[in-house]
Task: structure prediction
Amino acid sequence: MMGSSSETRAEIAALRSWPEGWNGYDAAAPNPSAVRHALSWIEDLYEDTLTTGRGWISPHVVADAHGNVVLEWWEDRKKLTIYVHTKTVEYVKVWGPDIFSDMEDGEVEGAEDRRTLWNWLTG
Amino acid sequence: MELADGVGGDHVDDNETLYRSVVPELWKQKDDGEFYLSSQAFADRYRRPSVDRAKLCGHDPGYAQFRPSDYVCSLMAEEVRAIDTVVKHDKKDVPQVRHNIDIELVPLSNNDAHAEIYAVPEISGGRIFERLLERLAYLARWESGFAPPETTG
Result:
């Protein structure tokens, strides 16, 4: 799932065309502000990956039911889900099925948090 | 422990299959050929993901589809109810609230099979629901004949 960052940016931008109820249930249409934020955030993440030996790994790009952008990566037994809101970014790390002992969540508050998550995913 | 009971005593049995429609955007196939179901497959604005009870729609996954292009996955009610670690912690990691997960009958005028997965007490905030979404995606199985196409070659 290497892909390219430009492909990822195109997929994020395409979220703008998703309508209300895009999932068949009641999901909100992706918020344009969240899409803009995600485009900026993914660019920052791509810049981070240039300094690692692993290179870029394309996420799965989707939205949540509230209109936020969701980015998902699956690497071996690890999974990283990033929620990009209009102003904040949150994460859920998953390394097993148990909600309490195999998952962690939090807010991505800056570059250091972003790099730490990427290193966890790719390490 | 089953928490929800419907009119006339109907309730969702533990051995019931629950269908969920999945648009193609909600799954991904990696280079290794594995399929991955997005955690957003069960996303819901009100934290009550809708499902259709297989036994009330002739065990036909097609009943759950909104569009012919939709895939269908399923959950077992017993496995949903067995999710017992939905716990909200405070900033010091002290458990505050333990949520039970159950399935409630919510028949609609155009869908007798409709039900909703919900938490007791209700999940009011934080990222607990997002963790639950990850678990539901982990438990989900594709329904035969309604799964994404396999890779060729």
Observations:
- DSSP finds two helices and nine strands in chain B.
